[in-house]
Amino acid sequence: MSQQAHGHAAEHSADSHGGLAQYIYVFLALCVLTTASFFTYSDYWPFHDQPKIGWAFMMAVSCTKAMLVILFFMHVKYEASWKYVLTIPAAFMSIFLILALVPDIGMRSHWVSEEREQYMANPRVEHKTPVRHSETRSQHSSDAPSGEGH
Q: Closest Cα partner for 80 from 13, 10, 5, 138?
């Protein structure tokens, strides 16, 4: 009887995982999604003037690809409901960690000691009027002493 039970369990697990054809379909879907990511860099992409749309599209494609890999190649789709016991608390902890660190990172330059402030990087100051190199050369050449008196 144990051989029958073992044979039935092996047959059931092979059918439930979809076999080789399912992995080929997932592989082809990953190839199509990768092509869609590269499409954002082609001349046919209509949103070249709005890069945030391309970034959002590529993030959506990347999340979809990650979901396919996790569900099928890591066999998470076929696991029991205990996967939620592991993933939901981890997701909440990661969200809480991000929420706890954002104010600290965003406000780190507001409350510092004088000694630490001396060694902090200063923000970049952009000039409103661009300096032309030809103007700076002419100013430097007029400031330089001429070699006639020596």
A: 13
d(CA 22, CA 6): 24
Report pLDDT digits (tens) over 82-130: 777 778 888 899 999 988 888 777 776 677 778 877 887 777 777 666 6
What CA–CA distances, in Å, run from 79 to 10, 74, 85? 15, 10, 12
Tell me: the pLDDT tens digits for 41-81? 888 889 888 888 988 999 999 999 999 998 888 877 777 77
| Contacts by 5-9, CB closer than 8 A, 24 or more apart | none
Burial of 58 (0-12, 13-18, 19+ CB in 10 A): middle
Q: 17-48 burial string, b = 16+ CB within 10 Å, else e?
A: eeeeeeeeebeeebeeeeeebeebeeeeeeee
Q: Tokens at residue 123, please? A: 């923000």
136, amino acid identity: T
Encoded amino acid at 21, one letter: A
Token output for 6: 């073992």
Please indicate, yes or no, whether the overall pTM of this predicted structure exceeds 0.90: no
